[in-house]
Amino acid sequence: MTEPRWLNDEEQRAWRGLMAMDEGLSAFIDRRLRTRCGLSYSDYRVLAHLSEATGGQLRSFQLGGLLRWEKSRLSQHLSRMQTRGLVSRERSQADQRGAVVTITPEGRRLMAAAAPQHVADVREAVIDQLTPAELRTLTKITDKVRRRLAALDPELGTDTD
């Protein structure tokens, strides 16, 4: 068995910084959405995908793929959102096997209220903190890592959300 390639101090700092940034950004965005709009970050992501889809609807498996969620997590989350009147679920008319998830008028209303505030938060926390060169570098880094992840695990894909 070969010796692990342990991270050196610089690599460790970069890795831990990335993890702390990811956790911090997710918590910040979630807190802002909940406080301002009553939506969780997960709710927002579901509604964003649905609002961008043709007719405001997607098959459950498509939505799960975009979110990279397990079937059970998606089902449970959609049930909570359906109870709150944000989405509806119906059997697919095409094959009667799968479900179609549709954004409701209430879901659209909340999305319309949340989106401008969300983009302002993203700008405040990340985009406006970077120079144009830093933003290009960040894009190159994230694209490169996402491509590698897709090669290592094709289920991760390279879609953005």
UniProtKB/TrEMBL annotation:
Pfam families per the UniProt record, alphabetical: Staph_reg_Sar_Rot
GO biological process, one term: response to stress
Keywords: DNA-binding, Transcription, Transcription regulation
Residue ranges of every copy of the HTH marR-type domain listed in the record: 11-147
Gene Ontology molecular function: DNA binding; DNA-binding transcription factor activity
Record SMART domains: HTH_MARR
Protein name: DNA-binding transcriptional regulator, MarR family
Species this protein is from: Actinoplanes philippinensis
